[in-house]
Amino acid sequence: MNTNKKYKLKKRESNGLCRIVALKSFGNVTKGDIGGYLSADTNLSHENNCWIYGDARVSGKAYVYDNAQVYGNARVYGKAHVYGDARVYGEARVSGDAQVCNNVWVYGDARVFGNAHVYGNPCVYGDARVSGGARVYGDAQVYDNARVYGNAQVDGNAQVSGDAWVSDNARVYGGAQVYDKALVYICLHLQQFRHDITATNTHAFIGCEGHTWEHWEANIETIGKNHDYSTLEINQTRKLLQILRGQINAKKDQ
Q: Nearest CA to 128 among 141, 113, 107, 147?
């Protein structure tokens, strides 16, 4: 027997997969522990402390390595890779050519698929979906029923939640928060402004403060003064919001 192996496969079960049994102690796994399911030993590295627990399954050409953990009823399949110190658990699914790595947590009923990459320290949870060529990184969070897809990017400390959708080439970053049923088209970081500006079909967000377009139009001066904006800054912000709203209306009419 190859003493470098840290687990062996048990007899293949009716689901077409094999449970794993630890051949030695490592990390928080003790020799003899029974783990989750694999298609083959090519699904889980024999190096470092990665492990599959409980009823979790890793199948197809998917690969879990480094110190990653998959547990609960989670599934990793297709050609997906889960590595670094990533955690995939609950009823979460990672599939296709997706990559989940570093300190990422994917849990609940979340799905990461397609060519999506989630890396850094993000959390993707609830019923959230990250797909296509989307990238979620930094300390970002995507949760509830949010969707991030296409070539969209969510990073920094940004949060996308509720029924919000971020798509195409949109980028949500900094401390932006996108929620409710917003559809994100534009996100700007301009040196002359103190905060990032995120523009959606229904709302605009300046930093962490979000309102409908109508609310901004009626209250920009009061809001600006509450945040110690100068008259010049208020006028610049008002003009930029008007330009962005015009661009979004033009996009919706296409």
A: 147
Each residue's pLDDT tens digit in the chain (254 positions)? 445 899 999 999 999 999 999 999 999 999 999 999 999 999 999 999 999 999 999 999 999 999 999 999 999 999 999 999 999 999 999 999 999 999 999 999 999 999 999 999 999 999 999 999 999 999 999 999 999 999 999 999 999 999 999 988 788 887 777 877 777 766 655 556 677 777 777 888 887 788 889 999 999 999 999 989 999 989 989 998 998 888 777 766 65
Q: Are 81 and 59 in contact (CB under 8 A)?
A: no
Positive or negative torsion for Cα 222, 228, 232, 234: negative
Query: For strand 34-38 and strand 57-58, is the pairing parallel, antiparallel, or unpaired?
Result: parallel
Q: How far is residue 195 CA from its own chain's centroid?
A: 23
pTM attached to this predicted model: 0.81
CA dist 156 and 182 (Å) reads: 19
Which amino acid, one-letter code, is at 191?
Q
With CA atoms as reference, report the closest residue to 206 among 193, 222, 219, 225: 193
* Euclidean distance between CA atoms 192 and 231, whole angstroms: 14
Task: State how far the alpha carbon of 116 is from the alpha carbons of 4, 97, 137, 173, 227, in Å.
Answer: 33, 7, 11, 17, 37
